């Protein structure tokens, strides 16, 4: 029947195929073929086209005339986020899922990555030379909550830096999919940063001004990204999460005065009442009970049955980022992601002067500049540190 419609449309108008078929899934949902996720059982998927070498040859306005984007797409060209509470098992689940569908796996962004610059130089090593008000506060230090209160307040700066870096990592995931056609499974996505903003605000660890600015940055940057096709939420009660934290045996988590049962319950509640309903507007959402985890094969069958392409009649926003019928829209996004400076410039915003914990105080800036910004490993790009390399002939 679909073939008859195609032929009839083509005979009426030379461009009728383009006019009719994009809307066929809505007009005749039972007569069109939908591409679902397809398990490769851990084997490499067969691809019609070789991946574009985007790391060596960034896609640009010139290459768009010779290489289109969607020709590499297949059933598994999807972005999947695996979300859940602390220590619930996101890493193992996401890795296994990526292996099952031959997708790229991107682990959760680690806060330590926010402090590494240059050639693996850790800015936290400079803390001993800095006043408490500008020291770098990582998650471990914050959870232990033993340092000077002024240092612990700097965790807001860490949250802001983590979001920026996680945003860039999500941009890399999109770039990978658009250039290779290979889907991506991410352990915790950039969208769930707001969950922890809300929780930290409720437990009094984030000021109203900092909370407002962090959400301002989120709202004005995340709108530029295409949303995931699927969000998988790993659901577990607080007692299960507590047992997993104990089993993981990170002392700074087990004995943390921050990670209380109230904190864990707030994370769970915020996910279920705010994050998931919001993501459900644009993506498919699947909940997995980690206490009574279903058989893996049954879980994969459930995933393969899900339609991650068709936009429902009554949900105009679902999958809308991926619904364009114009190849230029996909090419344009691919080009934008290749321009790293352009992606990073989305964070060029006014400083939050009303939230001093998010910026370096003016009284401390001279010493911060001298110790941190003027440090050769921070000041120079990798390979351009004159203390380590001959940069006479470098441009």
Automatic annotation (TrEMBL):
Keywords: Electron transport, FAD, Flavoprotein, Mitochondrion, Respiratory chain, Transit peptide, Transport. Its cofactor is FAD. It is found in: Mitochondrion matrix. Residues 80-299 form the Deoxynucleoside kinase domain. GO terms for cellular component: mitochondrial matrix. The keyword Transport applies. Accessory subunit of the mitochondrial membrane respiratory chain NADH dehydrogenase (Complex I), that is believed not to be involved in catalysis. Complex I functions in the transfer of electrons from NADH to the respiratory chain. The immediate electron acceptor for the enzyme is believed to be ubiquinone. Belongs to the complex I NDUFA10 subunit family. This is NADH dehydrogenase [ubiquinone] 1 alpha subcomplex subunit 10, mitochondrial.
């Amino acid at each position: 029947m679909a073939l008859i419609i195609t032929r009839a449309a083509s005979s009426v108008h030379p461009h009728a195929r383009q006019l009719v078929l994009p809307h066929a899934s809505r007009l005749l949902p039972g007569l069109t073929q939908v591409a679902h996720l397809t398990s490769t059982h851990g084997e490499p998927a067969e691809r019609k086209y070789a991946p574009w070498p985007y790391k060596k040859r960034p896609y640009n306005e010139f290459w768009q005339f010779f290489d289109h984007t969607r020709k590499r797409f297949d059933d598994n060209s999807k972005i999947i986020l695996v979300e859940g509470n602390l220590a619930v098992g996101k890493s193992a689940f996401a890795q296994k899922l990526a292996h099952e569908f031959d997708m790229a796996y991107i682990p959760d962004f680690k806060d330590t990555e926010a402090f590494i610059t240059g050639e693996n130089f850790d800015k936290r090593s400079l803390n001993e030379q800095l006043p408490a008000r500008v020291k770098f506060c990582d998650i471990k230090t914050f959870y232990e909550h033993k340092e000077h209160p002024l240092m612990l307040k700097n965790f807001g700066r860490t949250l802001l830096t983590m979001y920026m870096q996680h945003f860039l990592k999500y941009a890399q995931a999109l770039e990978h999919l658009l250039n290779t056609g290979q889907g991506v499974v991410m352990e915790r996505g950039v969208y769930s940063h707001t969950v922890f903003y809300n929780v930290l605000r409720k437990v009094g660890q984030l000021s109203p001004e900092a909370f407002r600015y962090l959400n301002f940055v989120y709202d004005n940057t995340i709108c530029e990204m295409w949303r995931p096709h699927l969000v998988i939420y790993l659901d577990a009660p607080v007692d299960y999460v507590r047992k997993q934290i104990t089993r993981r045996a990170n002392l700074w988590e087990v004995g943390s005065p921050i990670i209380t049962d109230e904190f864990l319950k707030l994370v769970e509640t915020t996910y279920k009442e705010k994050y998931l309903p919001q993501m459900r507007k644009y993506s498919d959402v699947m909940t997995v009970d980690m206490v009574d985890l279903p058989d893996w094969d049954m879980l994969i069958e459930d995933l393969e049955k899900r339609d991650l392409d068709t936009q429902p009649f009554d949900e105009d926003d679902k999958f809308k980022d991926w619904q364009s019928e114009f190849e230029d829209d996909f090419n344009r996004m691919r080009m934008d992601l290749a321009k790293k400076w352009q992606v990073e410039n989305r964070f060029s915003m006014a400083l939050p002067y009303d939230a001093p914990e998010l910026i370096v105080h003016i009284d401390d800036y001279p010493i911060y500049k001298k110790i941190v910004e003027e440090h050769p490993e921070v000041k120079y790009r990798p390979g351009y540190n004159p203390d380590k390399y001959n940069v006479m002939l470098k441009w």
